[in-house]
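Write out the bound-state structure for thymidine-5'-diphosphate.
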Amino acid sequence: MSLISFMNVQVLGDERGRLNVLEACKNIPFDIRRVYYLTATQMGVSRGFHAHKALEQVAVCVSGGCRMLMNDGSQVEEVVLDSPDKALFIGKMMWHEMHDFTEDCVLLVLASDFYDEQDYIRNYDEFLRLANPL
Ligand code: TYD
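---
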């Protein structure tokens, strides 16, 4: 099964431009409790390198692009997010890394819960242990 799952962004458009819609519990599979966005990411910088125990997220580059690596502890897949209609689901227990940010990248993330450092798994060996219990 692929690790890459895109949400069905509703794209409305007319001669004035485009309007992209994501709604909680409709085309986002959870109730949105937090929104954050990464901007001004410096060239050559990679981010992420963690998984979450319970948090679910959807990530979309509303401007520019980046490469997202997804790893569930047994498979690794990569996808380029380079369009406001490519909204990627990042489920719980998914190690993810963001690379190759363009200068104009604005990476918007919708999250199912408030910020909680206790929900992070930042150590890769610990992630592999938890993802692949004996
Ligand atoms: P982190 O999630 O580690 O960023 P990235 O995966 O993009 O490298 O967050 C960076 C720092 O910001 C870390 O100290 C936690 C803090 N933070 C908050 O306080 N609130 C938030 O909603 C987020 C996402 C991060």
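---
DSSP finds one helix and twelve strands in the chain.
Residues 124-131 form the longest helix (8 residues).
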